[in-house]
Each structure stands twice: as C-alpha cells, then as structure tokens.
Amino acid sequence: MDDRTVVAAEQPVAQLVVRQGVQTGKVFPLGRRPVVLGRDEKADILLPDPEVSRLHARISWFEAQYIIEDLRSTNGTYLNGSLLRTPEPLNHGDKIAMGQTVLEFEWLASAPPPSAMAQPPFHAIEQPHPPITEQPHVTSQPPPSTPSATSSSPAAAPAVPAAQVETNSGIGRCLLIGCGCLVLLTLVLVGAFIITWFTVPEWVQELQNLLDEYHIPLQLVRLLTAHLPF
C-alpha cells in the first residue's frame, strides 16, 4: 500500500480540488498527517505538471488547522496569487497555484470548524482570579502647624541694660573733658608763641650790639641767631 492509498484511507477532514491543469476536477482528500505535493512518484499527491518540482510543497496538520509551506521549489508556490515565502495557514476557498496547476482548499461539511477544534471545553478553561493587591499601610501624620499671625511680625529689639547706658554716658563725658583740655593747651601755646615773637627781638638786638662792641665775628652771630624766630 503506497502513501496515496494511506491518505485516502484516513478519515478526511478537508480536501484539495484541482480547478486548473491536467487533472481538473480531481479531488485529493486530506487527513491529519502531512502530505507532500509534487510530480515525483514519492509525492503523496502526484501532480503530473512539468512546471511542478519533484517535491514542491507540503501541507501539515498543526493545532487544528492546515499549514502549507514551499519546499524550495523551482517555480515557487502561490497562495491566493501571492508568492509563498513562509508557512501559512489554509482557509476555506484558498487557491494554491503550482506551475500550471491550481488547487482549491475546502473544509468538509462533516468536519468541525477549526475554531471549534482548537477551542478546549468550557469546564477545562481555568478562569483567572483577579490578583489580590495588598493595600499599602498609610500612617496618619499630624497636620502641619500653621504659623500664627504674631510670627510674621518682625522681632522686637532686645532691651539695653541700664548699666551699659550709664557706662556709655561716662565715656562721653570723659571725651568731652579731654577735648576741652586739649583746646586750652593749644591756646596757651599760641599765647606763649605770640609773646615770644614780640619780646625776643629786643634782647637779641642788645646782644648784637654787645657783640659788635667786643668785635665778635658776624658769622658767629648769624650762626647763633639762625634758629631764632625773627
């Protein structure tokens, strides 16, 4: 018994119908085992098309649906007019083109739809429980104290001790007395200078006459009188 007989002997779930090509109208039932399409005698579905590769494409059953993939064929596999580059799921009515052959994928009426086969029974679905979130512990804090109206007013100046006031007064009196004494001493010195200014020239003149009488050199007199105020 060859592979094609095994494919036909399995309980069919879907089928491929040749819509264009040498085998137009021929039906290939699909079970739940993978099948290879090509023009080689070893292919599960033999397509006598010279433009079809020996092992052209493969259809596999995976998670309650059929998946088609290209097996690096020479002319490529087209699904609904688009070049098949990666494995793609098959839906009812999809057109598969290989060379000059076009096949149509059909689910059989006796087979349950893919959604029903892929969906587990209701009782087997574990309903997720909402996560229990722990409420954070909030510690109560006293409300912030509001500043009173008196705190916004400027601080009063500190009181000056009475002893410090008396000390400052005594220092002021001492300074006043000292200034008065200094003024008095200045007046005395000025008066003495004035008296000396008017009285010294008289006795200096007498001294000069005395020196002339004794023939004392004038240079000596000038030397003696050079520092006198006249």
The tally of beta strands, per DSSP, is 11
Tell me the number of helical segments per DSSP (H or I, 4 or more residues long).
Answer: 4
Strand content: 15-25%
Percent helix range = 25-40%
Quick overview of this protein structure:
This protein is α+β, with helices and mostly antiparallel strands and 230 residues long. It has helices at residues 3-9, 114-118, 162-213, 218-225; strands at 14-20, 27-30, 35-38, 45-46, 57-61, 66-70, 78-79, 82-83, 88-89, 95-98, 101-107.
From the structure above, extract its key features.
alpha+beta, Tumour Suppressor Smad4, 5-stranded mixed sheet
Itemize the secondary structure elements and their pairings.
Blueprint: H1 3-9, E1 14-20, E2 27-30, E3 35-38, E4 45-46, E5 57-61, E6 66-70, E7 78-79, E8 82-83, E9 88-89, E10 95-98, E11 101-107, H2 114-118, H3 162-213, H4 218-225
Parallel strand pairs: 3-4
Antiparallel strand pairs: 1-2, 1-11, 3-5, 5-6, 6-9, 7-8, 7-10, 10-11
Explain this structure.
The chain is an alpha+beta fold. Among the domains are: 14-111, Tumour Suppressor Smad4 (Sandwich), CATH 2.60.200; 177-226. Helix content is 31%, strand content 19%. It contains four helices and eleven strands. The chain has helices at residues 3-9, 114-118, 162-213, 218-225, and strands at residues 14-20, 27-30, 35-38, 45-46, 57-61, 66-70, 78-79, 82-83, 88-89, 95-98, 101-107. The strands form two sheets. The protein has a six-stranded antiparallel beta sheet, with no helix packed on it. A five-stranded mixed beta sheet has the order 4-3-5-6-9, with no helix packed on it. A hairpin with a 2-residue loop joins strand 7 and strand 8 (82-83). The protein is rod-shaped. The N and C termini lie far apart (164 Å).
